[in-house]
Structures are given as C-alpha cells and as structure tokens.
Amino acid sequence: MLRFVLRSLLFPLLLYCGAGLVAGYFVWHGVNGQRGLKAGEEYAERLAELEREHAALVAERKQWERRIALMRGDAIDADMLDEQARATLGRVHRNEVVILTPQPARREEER
Length: 111
What we know:
Elements: H1 2-32, H2 37-71, H3 78-89
C-alpha cells in the first residue's frame, strides 16, 4: 500500500518538477539569452545610437561639401579663401576684430 501511494504521488510530482525545470530553462533563455528579449532591447538601443551618429556624420559631410564647393570651380569665394588662409597662417590685420568660436571636439579616429 505504501509503495502504491509513493508511486502514485511521487512519480507525477517528479514529472511536474522536471517539466517545470525544462520550461523554466527555456523561459529564462528566452528573456535573458543571447537572442532573448533583453538582447533585442540592447540591439535597438545600439541601433538608435548608431543612427544618431550616422545623422551627425551626414550633416558634417554636407557641411564640408558645401565649404569645398565654395573653393572649387572657376569662381573661388574670396572671403572663404581669405578665411582659410588666415586660419592656416594664424595671422590677422591689426584693425580686425577676431571672434573665437569653440571648435567641435575631434573624434579619436581623426587624430
């Protein structure tokens, strides 16, 4: 009789516990694993960060293309040429007023 009670109660209990452990394993990896929900959120955050960086680089590239276009071709913008020459040489006329603006921080790849 005791054997029958143990078998009828203990065996299903062990099966349920085993099934719960297997299900818990898959649920845990579904949330925390390499391709889980949290990894998807991290990928989305990284993607947003890279898209912001890409937008900034595109804007910087357009700015440089606009400045280069002023120096290219038959008509060179005299003001732009004068500005670049003075910036390169570090010289100003004594009657000029110089307004210094902060330069954007350079990235490590550019140095």
